[in-house]
Amino acid sequence: MTAQTGTSVTSGCHLLSVPNLSRKLSPQRLATVVYSSQPEHLIQRRRCNESIATTSLDVTFATPNYSTALSALNGFHPYHYHQMSDLEGVELPNIRGPFSETASPREQEPHLDATGEDLQAKRAWLDEQLQKRLNGEYETMGRRLEEIVTDSRDSPAKLSAIRVDGSTLRSSFLAAIFKQHLDKDPARTLTEVLQKSRNVHHNLAAFDLFSAMEMKLDPAQSLFARQGDLDLALKVRERGKLWAKSSTDVGNGEGSANISVRLRNVFGGAENVEAQASYGTRTTSAFNVSYSSPIPEFVTTPTPNTRLTAQVFQADRDHSAYAGIKEFMVGARGSLNTLQSYGAHDFTYEAVWRNLGSLQPNASLSLRDSAGSSIKSSVAHSFTHDSRDDIHMSTRGGYLNTLIEYAGLGGTVNFVKGQLQTSISRPIDTKLQNYVGLSFRTGALLPLGGSMSEEYAYAKLFSDRFRLGGPTSVRMFGHNRLGPRDQEDHLGGDVYYSGGVSLTTPFPTKPHWNLKCQAFVNAGQLVSLKNNNLTNALLNPSISAGVGLVYRFTPIRVELNFGVPLVASATDIATTRPMQLGVGLEFL
Amino acid sequence: MNNYIPQFPLKRVDVGQAAKHTATTPILWVYGRSSISFGPECLKWQIYLLFNGIQFQLKAINEANASPNNRLPFLELPHREGQRAVLLKDDEIKGYVEGVTGSEPAEMEAHESELLQLVEKQLRASFLTYHFFVESSSRDTPNLYFPASKDNKLVEVQRMHRYNRMQASLSVEIAKVVQGKDDLEQTRTTLSAWFFARMFPSTEPYEAVPIDVEAVDRIAADTLAHLSSRLGSAEWVLGKDKPSYVDASLFAYLYLTLSLLPPTSHLRRRLTGHINLTHYTQHIASDFLKARI
C-alpha cells in the first residue's frame, strides 16, 4: 500500500512531522501522520473526527510510539487507512518543498540531524505539540457541546430518575436528598434538566464522601417513561471508609502531636465517627471521640450545610506557664452547626466536669481557693462570618465571631458569658501590595452565684475566665500574663478588650515571597469584676508596639516580632527580651 | 540597646489588679460546715491548737486539692498583704506550735508512740469503717463531704463518683490495719475500675476493697478497752498535767464517734460503755470547743 498524495486537513488529531521526510517521500507524497503514544486515544479521536464530519483526507497511523511511527512510515504500512473516494479527480494543489533542511524549522521543531538536538528534545517537542492539540480538541468539543446544548435547550425533557452507581449511602438517605430535585418544580426543558443535574451534583459533592463523580444523562429506563424523559446516571467513587492521620501541630502557645482516625459514612447516611488523641506541651493529653451526621432523613431533608455533632472528650491541661495549677476535664458536647451564605451558626450544649488540682508548692491562695471540682452545664450560640481572602494573612475582607454562653443548667457554676471578635483588612496601595489590618476583641463574664456563696462561686470560675497577652494576643507580653494576679499566678479576668493595628508590606525586593514585614500597635486590658475601680482599670490599657516578620505556612501563621511594651499594669508580665515568636491561627 | 530595653514599659500603672490577702492570725484550712471540723484529722489539729492556746481562724475549704499535699488540714501562717503565705501541714504544724509555745521538741516515749499508733491506726480504722462503710451509720456521710444539690442529677453523679473514690482510698487504709500488713492482695477488679485506672492513672484507687466489719468491731472493742484502762481516772491519757498531741488525736475520734455516728451504732454503743472515755470527751468538748455532746 502506498501513501496517498493530496491535501490533508487534520481535525482533532495529532500532527507528526517526520524528520527527513523528503528522503522517504517525494514532495508530491505529502502525508499527515497521526501519532499517539496510546492507540486507543487515536481511535477515540478518530471517532471524534467522524462525528464532527470533517472533510479530510487522512493517512493515519496508529502506532504505540514514535519509533514505531517512523518504522511504519518507512514501510508505509498503515494501521488504519481511509480515503474519501469522492475526492478522486480533484486537482491537487502544487505543494513544494523543502520539508526539511529549512533554516527555520516549523514551530521550532528540533532537527535530529542538527548538532545538540537529541531524541529527548524531539520527544519534548512532540509532547508539547500533543498537548496543544489536545487543548484544541477539548475547546472544540466544548464549543460543539455548547452548540448542541444551545440548539436543544428548549426541547422538552424531564428528569425522570436519578441513579447512583458505586455508593454505599442508604437508599432512604439518597431518596431524601433527591426528592427535592425530582418532585419539586419538575424540569420541563433540557436546560432545566441540566440545571437540576448540576444541583444534584453539587448537593452530593458537598457531603465530601466521593473522590470522583461522573454524571451522565441517559434515556429514561422506566417502562412508564415518556418521550424526552431522562435519567441522571451518577457513577461515583467513594473515599476510603477509614482515614487516619498523625500530625504535629504548633499554635496558640503550645505544640502537640496528634493521632486521628476517622470512619466515614458509618451507617450509610454520611455519618462520621472520629477519634483523636493528642499529647502536647500545655494540653498535656487530650482524647475525644465525636460522631457527626447530617440531620437524619426521618427528621428532615439532609443537607451538607447542617450537621449534628456529639462528642465526648477528656483533657489534661497544664496552666503552669502562667498559673501553678493543672486542670483535668472530662465532658460531653452536642452541637448543631449550620452554614449559611452569610455565616455559620453553632448551637452547643456542653456538660463538663473540671478538676483543678496538682497545685505547685508556691501556688497562691487565690489558686487554692479555685482548686477542686466543678461542673459546667451550659448552652452557647456562636456566629461566624468570614469574608477574608486568606484566613492567615488576609489582605482584604472581614471576620466576625460572636459567642453567647449561659452556664447554670444543672452544673455547679453559674454565669453568663459574651464575646465578640472582629477584624478587617484593606489594601492601602495595590501596586506596593501593602495593606492594613484592624482587629478588636472584647468579652465579659458575669457570675450568677446560684446556690453557692458568692465567694465560693466566684473562685470556681477559674477555667471560664478570659485570658490576655501573648504573641497571638497583645504582643510583647507573656502568654496569658496580663490582668489580675496573685503572687506569680495570673488568675484571668471577667472583662476584657484588646485591639490591634498592623501594617503589612512585602519583603523588600521579594514581593512574591510568603514572608512579609509588619509593624503593629496592640492594646488591651483584662480586669476582674472584684476590682475596686473597674472603670479606671479599663481606661488604662496595656500597650505594645513593634515590627516583625510574618510567614504564612499553609495551616498556620508564624511571626517573629521585635518590639516593646509601652504601657503596662503593675501586674503585667512583659517578655524578657524585645523579641517574640508567635505561632498560631488567629492573631490580634 | 541593652541599656534601653529595661526602660520599657515606659509607664507602669497600678490599677488594683493584685489580689490582696492578709492574715493576722494563723488560718486552719479544714473540712467543716460549722466551727467544729467534721474531719478527724482536721479536728485533731484544731483541738491541738486550742490545747496550746494558739489563736487561729478556721477556714472551711472542703477541697483536699487546695492543700500542698492534697490532704486537709493545713495551716496558713500570718502574713502581710503582698507577702507569700507560708503553709504548714502535718508535723510542720506541731513544730510551729512548739515554736510558738516555747516548748522543747521531745522524742516520744515508747508507750506514747504505742498509744498514738493505737489511736491513729486501730481507733481510726474503726471510726472510718462505721462512718463510711456501715450502712446504718454512714447515711449522712456523703452529704457531709459533698453536699447534695437540690435538683441536680449531673452534680449527683459527680458527687457519688468523688465519694466512691474517697471510700476506695479509705477502704485500703482500713484493710491494711485489719490484715496487719501494708501489701494487700488484689482480690477483684470491676471493669469500670480497670477502665478508669487505664484511662486516668491515679495514685488513689478506683475501687474499694472489701472490709470485714466483724473483724473491725473486734479491733474496736479491744482498742477502746485498752484506751479506757490507760486513761483510768486521769484527766489526760498520758497521765500528765496538760493535754498532749495524743490527747488531741484521741479526742478527735472519740468526739466524732459520739457526734456523727447514730446512737444505735455498735461503735458508739461500745464507746458509751466506757464511761471514763465518754466523760473525757465531754469534758474536752465543753472546755475547748464550747460544745455539748
UniProtKB/TrEMBL annotation, chain A:
Q: Which UniProt keywords apply?
A: Membrane, Transmembrane, Transmembrane beta strand
Superkingdom field = Eukaryota
**One of the record's GO cellular component terms:** mitochondrial outer membrane
State its location(s).
Answer: Mitochondrion outer membrane
Q: Which Gene3D superfamilies match?
A: membrane protein fhac: a member of the omp85/tpsb transporter family (2.40.160.50)
Question: In what residue span(s) does the Bacterial surface antigen (D15) domain sit?
Answer: 265-587
Q: What does the entry give for GO biological process? A: protein insertion into mitochondrial outer membrane
Give membrane topology per the record: Multi-pass membrane protein
Q: Keyword Membrane, does the record have it?
A: yes
Q: Which family does it belong to?
A: Belongs to the SAM50/omp85 family.
What is the recorded name of this protein? Answer: Bacterial surface antigen (D15) domain-containing protein
Species assigned in the record: Wallemia hederae
Taxonomy, top ranks, is: Eukaryota, Fungi, Dikarya, Basidiomycota, Wallemiomycotina
Automatic annotation (TrEMBL), chain B:
What residues does the Thioredoxin-like fold domain cover? 40-124
- Enumerate the spans annotated as Metaxin glutathione S-transferase domain: 221-284
UniProt-listed GO biological process terms = mitochondrion organization
Which terms in the GO cellular component ontology are assigned? SAM complex
Pfam families in UniProt:
GST_C_6, GST_N_4
Which SUPFAM superfamilies does its entry note?
GST C-terminal domain-like
Record-annotated membrane-spanning stretches: none
Q: Which residues form a coiled coil?
A: none
Q: What PANTHER family does the record tag this protein with?
A: METAXIN RELATED, METAXIN-2
Q: What is the protein named? A: GST N-terminal domain-containing protein
Please spell out the taxonomic lineage of the organism that makes this protein.
Answer: Eukaryota, Fungi, Dikarya, Basidiomycota, Wallemiomycotina
